[in-house]
Amino acid sequence: MKKKEMLVAAIRNGIVIDHIPPTKLFKVATLLQLDEFDGRITIGNNLLSQSYGRKGVIKIEDKSFDEEELNRIALVAPNVRLNIIKDYEVVEKRQVVVPQEVVGLVRCPNPKCITNNEPMRTRFRVIDVAECTLRCCYCERKLANERIELL
User: Fold this and answer.
1) What region does 136 belong to: left with phi over 0, alpha with psi -120 to 50, or beta?
2) What share of the chain is helix, strand, coil (3-state, %, to 5)?
3) How far apart are CA 105 and CA 150, in angstroms?
4) How many of the other CB atoms lie within 10 Å of CB of 85?
5) Fewest CB within 10 A of the end CB: N or C in the chain?
6) 107-121: b (≥16 Cβ within 10 Å) or e
7) Which residues lie closer than 8 Å to 49 by C-beta, 6 or more apart?
8) Could you tell me which of 65, 82, 61 has the C-alpha nearest to residue 13?
9) Which residues contact 17 (CB under 8 A, 6 or more apart)?
10) What is the pTM of this model?
11) Among candidates 83, 61, 45, 47, which has minimal Cα distance to 11?
12) Which residues pair with 60 in a beta bridge?
């Protein structure tokens, strides 16, 4: 019987962001500003996944996320899973959820939108959760996932 080799080191306490599409891994790391985090971080990309073929994983020791950070992750990679780790054990598994409304997180691509010309927060409705497609509540501009620009 073959022994499995662990490709990514275990962490004592923290969070694991799992099932990140390989093309979105570094975008997730950037939006979470992991380059400014001084704790231990392990990033693995193009790891084998039974469900997705290939995936990315980010393990962050001694870190948790607030709701805004989780919403940012969901907008970039809507199918990722979060594993909360305590004493080397997974104590909670969560699927990130794309919120029904996104406020102050995404820039409207319409240069004539009031949010680009007045000091006000952007507001988008999610019109397709699976594809993470948004519609601006002010100018009605539709925004596909790959065109989302986070503030």
Assistant:
1) beta
2) 15, 35, 45
3) 6
4) 20
5) N
6) ebbeeebebeeeeee
7) 19, 55
8) 61
9) 28, 57, 58, 59, 60, 73, 80, 81, 82
10) 0.79
11) 61
12) 15, 41
* Predicted local distance difference test score (pLDDT) of residue 8: 63
Place of tokens 């999610």: 126
Nearest to 138 by CA among 91, 94, 106: 106
Total number of residues shown for the chain: 151
- Contacts of 107 by beta carbon, 8 Å cutoff, 6+ apart: 115, 116, 122, 149, 150, 151
SS3 at position 13: coil
| pLDDT at res. 68 | 85
The first and second tokens of residue 102, run together, are 């996104």
